[in-house]
Automatic annotation (TrEMBL):
Its main location: cytoplasm. Belongs to the GHMP kinase family. Homoserine kinase subfamily. Residues 253-272 are annotated as: Disordered. One of its GO terms (molecular function) is homoserine kinase activity. Residues 74-156 form the GHMP kinase N-terminal domain. Keywords: Amino-acid biosynthesis, ATP-binding, Cytoplasm, Kinase, Nucleotide-binding, Threonine biosynthesis, Transferase. This is Homoserine kinase. GO terms for cellular component: cytoplasm. Residues 318-367 form the GHMP kinase C-terminal domain. Pfam families: GHMP_kinases_C, GHMP_kinases_N. Its EC number is 2.7.1.39. It comes from Galliscardovia ingluviei. It is found in: Cytoplasm.
Length: 432
């Protein structure tokens, strides 16, 4: 990791803005992340004291009643770690935080806090441009322990991240994909929290090989469904795979037969792939089968009735590797996601949960609805001859109608942020 030594403060005040992120994106567990234009803002002002314990922390918005207001605040801890890496002498600062990103909901609040602190130190030290962003990404990922939220928070858009090296020295890498302007996002924010630690502890060490293979195919497909310049087609359609069911028109090649034998488990056992060490083995999968029985009907219906222009997104957000194993920890969110997918919306649990992310593709080249009246709880068809705004408005209305049972008499809420293409932004406002 590149560091600066004996850096000096170049300004008196730094303002930082960091977007929310949705990581573990669909099938992209610990890899894919998407930046959302729903931002936290922070202002750092240097104080006269040389004692870091004299920090002042003022919080407005999310976390104002629960987050610490001393040097133990995650933003402050990340700031001083970055000061050490840059060779900046530690100074007391006043942090004024204006938070909109909910805490412990799967929208990257911890990554946002770390990126905010590291960015402030980099800005005080005078780093700019790509040099600054690369420093921020590497150090923030090291502090966070994984890069899938940090990468979109720093670079914006869609990111695919990976780690090289071993436990003694890890290196973090990412690739940024510009997202199609036609992609629109909604986030359904429930009225409860879920810790990342609890969500990770719910994951098994081994998963069926067929599930691992499906996730590989979907994770490969997802960037193609979101990236600018990729043409949408309607060739996916009813061919969307459902775990334990052969897609329409699937060939009966030996490879297909072998995968079918693995997928359609008899006697509660199946060949598996290990999440931790890659070793295959035989494990009991009764719990897996129970989850499959809950989702097969939903997936099949969604596959056969995908919205115009949504078929690729719907396929690309399918996951069998992590979300269902955590479903009991966030059953209402799981039910919301399933209801939306059944109605043809590409929906996924955001991060470790419990927020639900919905993605929609506005299009002008898909089949047009016949104009028949459609009940609010039915699979929707959007008139693709209408303007983009009209399509998005109709999608918004339908999403809210589908989830009305969860919104009614609760503190659940829905936001409709744009896809963020900028990542972290900062400004030094006064010369030191």
């Amino acid at each position: 990791m590149n560091t600066l030594h004996d850096a000096t403060y170049t300004c008196q005040t730094v303002s930082v803005s960091v977007p929310a992120t949705s990581a573990n994106l669909g099938p992209g567990f610990d890899t894919l992340g998407l930046a959302l234009d729903y931002r936290d803002h922070a202002t750092f002002t240097l104080l006269n004291s040389q004692n870091p314990a004299d920090v002042q922390v003022i919080i407005e918005g999310e976390g104002a009643q629960s987050l610490p207001t001393d040097a133990s605040h995650l933003v402050i801890r990340a700031f001083y770690q970055a000061c050490d890496a840059l060779g900046l002498p530690k100074r007391a600062v006043r942090l004024e935080a204006h938070n909109t990103i909910p805490q412990s909901r799967g929208l990257g609040s911890s990554a946002e806090a770390i990126v905010t602190g590291v960015t402030a130190a980099a800005a005080f030290a005078g780093l700019t441009g790509e040099q600054a962003k690369d420093f921020i990404f590497e150090l923030a990922a090291r502090i966070e322990g994984h890069p899938d939220n940090v990468a979109p928070a720093v670079y914006g858009a869609l990111t695919a991240s990976w780690v090289t090296g071993d436990a003694s020295e890890q290196h973090y890498h990412t690739v940024r994909y510009p997202v199609r302007a036609a992609i629109h996002a909604w986030v359904i924010i429930p009225d409860y929290q879920l810790s990342t630690k609890a969500a990770r502890e719910a994951l098994p060490h081994d998963v069926p090989r067929a599930d691992a293979l499906l996730n590989v195919s979907r994770a490969t497909l997802l960037p193609a469904a979101l990236v600018d310049g990729i043409a949408y087609t309607s060739t996916i359609g009813a061919g969307i795979s459902t775990t334990g069911a052969k897609p329409t028109g699937a060939c009966d090649s030996p490879a297909a037969q072998q995968q079918s034998e693995t997928t359609n488990i008899e006697g509660g056992q199946a060949e598996t792939a290990s999440v931790d060490d890659g070793q295959a083995g035989i494990v009991q999968t009764n719990a897996v089968q129970a989850h499959r029985s809950q989702t097969t009907a939903v997936q099949t219906n969604a596959a056969q009735t995908a919205l115009p222009g949504q078929d690729l997104l719907l396929a690309a957000t399918e996951d069998t590797l992590h979300q269902r194993y955590r479903s009991s920890l966030m059953q209402p969110s799981w039910d919301v996601m399933q209801a939306l997918r059944q109605a043809g919306f590409a929906s996924t649990i955001s991060g470790a949960g419990p927020c639900v992310l919905v993605l929609f593709n506005s299009t002008d080249n898909a089949e047009i609805t016949d104009g028949a009246e459609i009940a609010d709880n039915a699979v929707i068809a959007v008139d693709t001859n209408s303007s983009v705004d009209a399509q998005v408005d109709e999608a918004d209305r339908r999403i809210r109608a589908i989830i009305e049972p969860w919104l009614h008499n609760s503190e659940w809420r829905v936001i409709h942020p744009a896809i963020d293409e900028h990542g972290v932004m900062w400004q030094c406002t006064k010369e030191a």
